Amino acid sequence: MTTPPASPLIPSEAHIDELGELIAGLPGMLGFVPDHSLVLSTFTRQGGPFLGPTIRVDLPDDNDDRRELVDQLGNVMARNDVVSATIVVVCGGNADPPDLPHSELIDMVTEKFAHLDVRLTHAAWVPSIELGGIWWCYQCDDCAGRIHDPGTSTIAAVHAVEGMVTFASRDEMRDVLAPDDEDRVAHRAQLLAAYAEGMDEDASSLRAEVTATVEFAASHPALPELDDEQIARLSIALSNQQVRDHCLTLCVTGNPSGAERLWTVLTRTVPTPERAVPATLLGLCAYLRGSAVLASMALEIALDSEPDLRLALLLRTCIDRGTPPDEVLGMVETSAGMASNDSREEV
Fold first, then answer.
1. Average pLDDT value for residue range 150-169
2. Where are the beta strands (DSSP E) in the chain?
3. Is residue 252 within 8 Å of 259, Cβ to Cβ?
4. For a tag site, which of 75, 274, 307, 328 has the least CB within 10 Å?
5. Can you tell me the distance from the alpha carbon of 207 to that of 242, in angstroms, rounded to the nearest whole number?
6. Rounded distance, CA 322 to CA 315, Å?
7. SS3 136
């Protein structure tokens, strides 16, 4: 039911001065245009106040689901030390204030937040997020306004600079990870088997090949184009534990954008079960930069491919519990540092 929290996809100091601008920026914060959703923009005590997780959840269908959802949101608020939040409900319907869609849910969330001492700065309903659309307030009958242009919002401008994409829907985002043609994937599986039998390279050369490919991907805004032999070699490299440990470093330092592009390509092109590793690394990159939806999709692929993959299970647990991305980053940095020390001792 719940899309996990994400750290903001914009710098915390970005200035968003009114609700119409904030609503326009929600597709950028989430990575796609939400529909039939409740979206929370939060502020935490860190840095006082600091732009915190952006949370999207499916709108519940019955009262039991509402109670479960409200409890989940409360847990996320507590774990992330949230002090204030703005709610936007996005769904079809008609506005006849004070009778707005999902008013009962907003009342339940408001009560929960009051118990947690989280200030609800605004709660609004919109039928869709588009330029000139009207938002209506749950808290005041005569409070309404217009949505700014999502394409020219503060967040959209930041994304343009960073080369990040906002998808039209979750389904469109999911399509990015759809596997290649079955025949091509089967051919790569044969290459993988052949390379696995004949490859006798040390971890340092494998790390160098992965690093060089990440650097190449970082220098181009589009996803890198790799031939079948490259895909097979990189997949074999990722089967090496020392290389996987090195990839954690690539996800958090140096060229995380290039790493994410490479993991995306390998998730699409590598056969099962080998695709589990790049899918997990993609999930890590996506969550650390704030795209919890993409992270969840990638981890679903990883665990479908290799249900016992430890890193994927750990990340899935962190996301389900609402662990702040900064905490995940700290764990990854510690793990990568320990692995680097172990590698140097072996040499």
1. 70
2. 37-44, 50-58, 82-90, 119-126, 134-137, 144-146
3. no
4. 307
5. 8
6. 11
7. strand
